[in-house]
Write a structure and sequence with these properties.
The complex is a heterodimer of chains A (about 325) and B (about 475). With about 325 residues, chain A is mainly α. Chain A has 13 helices and 4 strands. Helices cover about 80% and strands about 5% of the residues of chain A. In chain A, helix 1 packs across helix 7 and helix 10 runs antiparallel to helix 11. The relative contact order of chain A is 0.14. Chain B contains 14 helices and 6 strands. In chain B, a hairpin with a 3-residue loop joins strand 5 and strand 6. The chains are: A mainly alpha (about 325), B mainly alpha (about 475). The interface between A and B is large, with 68 and 71 residues.
Chain lengths: ~325, ~475
C-alpha cells in the first residue's frame, strides 16, 4: 500500500515537472521577446493545457499530505518563503492567460506577471530540489534551519539549472506546436540552451564532488544507478540529431526523457529516504487505514480517470497550431 | 512560540479562505441553476432558456476560474503555516482533501469541457447530463470540504497514536451527524447565493428596461427558489445550533451572549458584550426563550461562559455579532423573496420599482450571510483548531517567525486585491452588458481547462451564430 502511493506520488510529480515544465519555460521565453505576434503564438501554444498541468501540482500536494503527512508538514513549513513566492508566481501567470486580452493599456502588467511568475516558479522548484540534495538542516524530525535554512549557492545553482531546463523544454514544445518563424527562432535557441544546461550539469557534478555530498556516496555504492544517466545521454544524442535534421516532433520527447532520467536518478539515489537522509518513506507514511481509504476510491478509480482525461485533452489539441499569429 | 506570528497566520488563513469561499458559494448554486435551465430548455424548447443559460455559463466560467486559483493556495497553507496540524491530522484531513481534489478534477473539469465545446458535438441528453455532472461535482467538492471541517469541529472516528490522529472508523467520519446538518446548511447557502444573484440581475435589467424576457425568467426563478429555500435554511440553521449546543457549549454561550448559567435562560436579541466585565451592555433579551432555543424546554439550565476556564473560552464579540448579521441577512432576504414572489403571482412586480430596487440591492446579502456564518463557526471554535484536542497555538508551525508571516500576509493581500478587483470588475461588465447581445458559440480558444476563456469573443471565425432573444 505504501509503495502504491509512492508510485502515484512519483507519477504526479513527474507529470507536473514535465507538463508545467514546458509551459513555465514558454513563460520565460515569452519574457525574452517583445513581439506581440510571437507572444500570442506562445500563449496559444500552452493556453489549452496549462491549467490541467498545474492541477498535477495540487494533486501531488494533497497526495503528499494524505499519504505522507510528515513530509508534507516538514517540507512545506521549511520552504515557507520560497513556496509563497512560487504560489504568487503561479497565480500571476495563471490569471495573465485571461486578463491580458481584456485590456490594452494594462497589458504590460499581466505580461510582466506571466513572464516573471513563470521564471520565479521554475527557479524556486529547482532551488527546492537543490536544497533537498544538499540536505535540509533537520534534527529529530524537525526542521531547524530558520527562515533561510534552504538557501545555499548550490540551491541557487539548481534553480538556475531548472530555469534553463524548463526553457529548453519550452523551446522544444514550440518547435513541436508552431510553424515557420517562431519554430525557426526556437530552433536557433535550442543549441544555446542545451549547452547551458550541459555546463550546469558539469558544475553541479563538480560541486557535489568537491563538497562530498552524501548523494555522491550513494552512487559509488550502487553503480547500477548509472543506467539512468545513460538513458539521458542517449536521449541527448537523439535530441541533437533531431534538432539538426529538423524533426519537429522529436526534440520535445527526448528532452522530456532527459528530465525523466534526471528525476529517476534523484529519486533512486534518495531511496529509501523521502527527505534525504533524515526521514524515510516508512517513517513518513500515513497509517494503513488512511492509505487504504485513499486506495479504494481515489487511487484505484479516480487517478486512472485523471490520467485518461489528461491524455484525451492532449490528443484533442495535438498537431500544429494553425495561423498562430491571428489567434484570439 | 511567536504570538504575533500566530495572529498573522490566523489572519492570513482567514483572509485567503474567506476570499476563496466567495467563489464556490456562488458557483455551486450557479451550476445547479444551469442544470435546471438546460433541463427546461430541453423540455420546453424555449430559446430564452438557452440564452439565459449561455449568459450565465460565461459568468460561471469567470467565477469558477477565480475559485480554482484561490483554492490552490489553501492546499499549501495547511503545510506552510499549520505544520503541526497537518502532521497530526494529515492521516484524516489529507485523504479527505485528496478526494476533494480528485473528484473536482474528474467531474468538474472534464464535464465543464463538454459544456464549453460539446453543444454541437454531443446529443442534447448528454449535454444535459454533463451540466448535471458539473453541478454534482461542485456539490461533491463541498461535501468533502464540509466533512473535513466538521471533523475539526467535532472530531470522531480516530485514535491518537504516536502523536497523530489515526482514523479507525471512516464511516463515522464521513457520515457524522454533524456533517449532515452542516453540509446541507452550506449547500442551501450556496443555492441561495446563486438564486439571489440571479434574481438581483433580473431586477437590475427590469429597472433598466432591458432584456425583459430573460430578466423575468431570472427574477421569477431566482425569487421562487429563494422563497422556498429560506425557510428550509432556517430549519438547518437551527439544527446547526443544536450540534453546537451539544458539542461546543462554550461556542454556543458566546453566540448567545450568555455570561452566566441561567435557568430558565433568556434569549439575548441584541447587546454589546463586554468581555472585561463579563456582562452585556444595552441588552434586549426575551425571558425563557433561551431555554426553548437551546433545549426545547421552558425550564432547562443553559450554560454561561463563566462556567468555562478563561483559556477555554472563544472570543465573544466576533461570534456574537457575526451570527446576528447572518440572521439579519436571512430576515431581509426572506422579506424580499416572499413579497417579491407574491407580487409576481399578482403580476405586479414590474410596477413596484421600490421592490425591484430592494431585490437588486440584496445581491451582497447571501455572500455576507455565508461569510459571517463561517466566521461564527470558525472563530467560535477557538481556542481550538481540532475542537477539544488540538489548540490553535499548538497547531502552528513552531518555528514560524513574525517576519515571514508578515511578508506572506502582505503578499497575499496585494495579489488577491489585484486579481479580485480585476475579476469582479470583469464579472460586473459581463452582467451589465447582459444576455441581449447575441448567442455566441464557444470560441475555438476556449477549452475545458481554461474556464475563463469562455468569454473570449472570436471575431475572425464565422462560428458566431445569433439567435433571436425572446420568443
Amino acid at each position: 500500500m505504501i509503495m502504491f502511493w509512492v508510485a502515484i506520488l512519483a507519477i504526479s510529480i513527474l507529470l507536473y515537472v514535465l507538463l508545467d515544465g514546458f509551459d513555465l519555460g514558454i513563460g520565460i521565453l515569452f519574457g525574452l521577446t517583445g513581439d506581440e505576434a510571437r507572444r500570442r503564438a506562445m500563449m496559444t501554444a500552452v493556453a489549452p493545457v496549462w491549467d490541467g498541468n498545474e492541477t498535477w501540482l495540487v494533486a501531488a500536494g494533497v497526495i503528499l499530505w494524505g499519504a505522507f503527512p510528515v513530509v508534507y508538514a516538514t517540507l512545506l513549513s521549511a520552504f515557507y518563503l520560497p513556496l509563497l513566492l512560487m504560489l504568487a508566481g503561479l497565480i500571476l501567470r495563471g490569471v495573465a492567460f485571461e486578463y491580458r486580452y481584456k485590456t490594452e493599456r494594462l497589458r504590460w502588467v499581466w505580461d510582466a506577471g506571466f513572464a516573471g511568475g513563470s521564471l520565479v516558479a521554475a527557479f524556486i522548484q529547482g532551488m527546492t530540489v537543490g536544497a533537498l540534495v544538499e540536505e535540509l538542516p533537520i534534527a529529530n524530525g524537525q526542521y531547524i534551519g530558520g527562515e533561510f535554512g534552504w538557501f545555499s549557492p548550490f540551491a541557487v545553482l539548481c534553480g538556475i539549472g531548472l530555469c534553463l531546463g524548463d526553457t529548453l523544454l519550452g523551446a522544444c514544445w514550440l518547435v513541436k506546436k508552431c510553424e515557420t518563424e517562431l519554430r525557426d527562432a526556437a530552433y536557433r535557441l535550442i543549441p544555446y540552451l542545451a549547452v547551458g544546461l550541459l555546463a550546469f550539469l558539469i558544475v553541479v557534478f563538480a560541486y557535489a564532488l568537491a563538497e562530498d555530498l552524501r548523494v555522491i556516496g550513494r552512487w559509488l555504492e550502487r553503480p547500477y544507478l548509472f543506467i539512468f544517466p545513460a538513458f539521458g545521454v542517449i536521449a541527448a544524442l537523439v535530441a541533437a540529431k533531431s534538432v539538426r535534421s529538423r524533426w519537429d516532433g522529436v526534440p520535445f520527447y527526448m528532452v522530456a526523457l532527459i528530465f525523466a532520467a534526471a528525476f529517476g536518478t534523484l529519486a533512486i539515489s534518495f531511496w529509501p529516504y523521502m527527505i534525504p537522509f533524515s526521514i524515510t518513506i516508512e517513517e513518513a507514511a500515513a497509517p494503513h487505514s488512511s492509505l487504504a481509504f485513499m486506495f479504494w476510491g481515489a487511487g484505484l478509480f479516480i487517478f486512472p480517470l485523471m490520467l485518461l482525461y489528461t491524455a484525451i485533452s492532449y490528443t484533442v489539441f495535438r498537431g500544429k497550431l494553425r495561423s498562430t499569429a491571428d489567434h484570439y | 512560540m511567536d504570538l504575533t506570528a500566530l495572529l498573522l497566520s490566523r489572519l492570513q488563513f482567514a483572509f485567503t479562505v474567506s476570499f476563496h469561499i466567495i467563489f464556490p458559494s456562488f458557483t455551486i448554486g450557479l451550476a445547479a441553476w444551469l442544470a435546471v435551465l438546460e433541463a427546461l430548455h430541453l423540455w420546453t424548447g424555449r430559446p430564452a432558456y438557452r440564452l439565459v443559460f449561455e449568459f450565465w455559463l460565461k459568468i460561471f466560467g469567470v467565477a469558477f476560474g477565480l475559485g480554482v486559483v484561490s483554492g490552490i493556495v489553501l492546499a499549501f497553507e495547511f503545510g506552510t503555516n499549520w505544520s503541526e496540524l497537518s502532521r497530526m491530522s494529515g492521516p484524516i484531513q489529507g485523504p479527505l482533501l485528496t478526494y476533494e481534489t480528485f473528484t473536482a478534477f474528474a467531474l468538474e473539469a472534464s464535464f465543464f469541457g463538454v459544456l464549453l465545446f460539446g453543444r454541437s458535438r454531443v446529443p442534447p441528453w448528454f449535454y444535459l447530463f454533463s451540466t448535471a455532472m458539473v453541478a454534482l461535482g461542485t456539490m461533491f467538492s463541498a461535501y468533502w470540504i464540509m466533512v473535513n471541517n466538521s471533523w475539526m469541529q467535532v472530531p470522531v472516528g480516530y485514535a491518537v497514536e504516536k502523536g497523530q490522529f489515526v482514523p479507525n472508523d471512516w464511516a463515522a467520519i464521513l457520515l457524522s451527524p454533524v456533517v449532515w446538518v452542516r453540509f446541507p446548511h452550506m449547500l442551501l447557502a450556496a443555492f441561495l447565493t446563486g438564486a439571489f444573484c440571479i434574481a438581483a440581475t433580473g431586477a437590475w435589467y427590469l429597472l433598466r428596461g432591458m432584456c425583459q424576457t430573460e430578466a423575468r425568467i431570472m427574477l421569477r426563478m431566482g425569487l421562487y427558489l429563494a422563497a422556498v429555500l429560506l425557510p428550509v435554511q432556517l430549519v438547518f440553521g437551527h439544527l446547526n445550533g443544536d450540534y453546537v449546543h451539544d458539542h461546543q457549549p462554550a461556542k454556543f454561550a458566546a453566540i448567545e451572549g450568555r455570561w452566566h448559567d441561567e435557568q430558565p435562560a433568556s434569549e439575548v436579541l441584541i447587546a454589546l458584550p463586554d468581555p472585561e466585565a463579563e456582562t452585556n451592555r444595552y441588552q434586549i433579551a426575551i425571558p425563557v426563550l433561551g431555554s426553548v432555543v437551546g433545549s426545547m424546554s421552558f425550564t432547562s439550565n443553559e450554560v454561561g461562559l463563566t462556567s468555562f476556564p478563561p483559556d477555554q473560552r472563544p472570543p465573544v464579540l466576533i461570534p456574537f455579532f457575526t451570527f446576528r448579521i447572518m440572521v439579519g441577512c436571512w430576515l431581509i432576504m426572506t422579506f424580499a423573496a416572499w413579497v417579491g414572489s407574491y407580487l409576481i403571482q399578482e403580476q405586479r412586480v414590474e410596477r413596484s420599482r421600490a421592490l425591484l430596487w430592494l431585490i437588486f440591492l440584496c445581491f451582497p446579502l447571501p455572500f455576507i450571510a455565508t461569510l459571517t456564518g463561517w466566521f461564527t463557526a470558525e472563530v467560535g471554535r477557538q481556542p481550538w483548531t481540532v475542537y477539544g484536542v488540538l489548540r490553535t497555538a499548538d497547531a502552528m508551525t513552531p518555528f514560524l517567525t513574525t517576519r515571514a508571516a508578515a511578508v506572506s500576509l502582505v503578499v497575499f493581500c496585494v495579489i488577491y486585491a489585484v486579481i479580485f478587483s480585476f475579476g469582479t470588475f470583469y464579472i460586473y461588465w459581463l452582467l451589465r452588458v447582459g444576455p441581449v447581445e447575441s448567442l455566441v458559440l464557444p470560441p475555438v480558444a476556449a477549452v475545458p481547462n481554461r474556464p475563463m476563456s469562455v468569454v473570449d469573443e472570436h471575431p475572425l471565425t464565422p462560428t458566431t451564430r445569433h439567435i433571436a432573444a425572446g420568443e
